[in-house]
Amino acid sequence: MAASSENHIRRSILDVTRHLLVQNGITNLSMRMISRRVGCSVGTIYFHFKSKDALVHTLIEEGFELLIAIMEQTASRTTNPLQRLKALCETYIQFAMKNPEYYEIMFMLKPERMERYPAEKYRRARHTLILIAEALEESTRRKLLLVKDPYQAAHLLWAFMHGLVSLLQARRMDARLDQQALIDAAIEKITVMFRADNENG
Questions:
Q1: What is the pTM of this model?
Q2: Which of 71, 105, 125, 144 could be cross-linked to 64 through a Cys-Cys bond (beta carbons 3.0 to 4.6 Å apart)?
Q3: What is the CATH class of 1-49?
């Protein structure tokens, strides 16, 4: 029972922190603010997390583990690398749209305002890009695409997706546009860049 209670408190601390980070930003976030919202002492938070940065890092890690899990599931569903690439892009964008708080914490917090994210966790987070790079590389081997540097291309593809997600989440796109149709068109255009008949591939 005690372990269950501790797990519940830890989960509450993480959930409250996730909401407060998005509402107030990391510079305005304090352990006291979190403790008031959770209904526990500041000491209880420090029992679970050694610092505010460690707490934020845990949320970043949680977000990436969720994203990695669903992208791995997506990657396993088809042996066609081009279809897999498109499905991975769709999965990434849908994750971002369904989990805006996690997404903002994962990709939009200013790193200079907190301790450096641990190297081993950063390497784990890069697995999302590696899945995309593998699909690009295999598509090139099968002559479906022409990509000289799959890992670099994965970063470029990610940058395009991040731009689209950021605009959609900020509601900067014309509201008359069908959101899913826009996402589908964006994914198709992104992959066209790397088509084997494109001399700039």
A1: 0.89
A2: 125
A3: mainly alpha
Using CA atoms, how far apart are residues 134 and 170, in angstroms rounded to an integer? 31
pLDDT, position 195: 81
User: Tokens standing for 171?
Assistant: 């509601």
Residue type, 176: R
CA dist 117 and 53 (Å) reads: 9
Q: Which of 50-54, 134-138, 187-191 has the highest mean pLDDT?
A: 134-138
Q: How far is CA 165 from CA 68, 70, 75, 119, 187, in A?
A: 18, 18, 21, 26, 12
CB 159 within 8 A of CB 58: no
Which tens digits make up the pLDDT trace of 67-122?
Answer: 999 999 999 999 999 999 999 999 999 999 999 999 999 998 876 667 888 999 99
CATH superfamily placement of domain 52-192: Tetracycline Repressor, domain 2 (1.10.357.10)
Q: What angle do CA 64, 119, 105 make, to 5 degrees?
A: 35
Give, for 16, the enclosing helix (H) or strand (E). Answer: helix 2-24
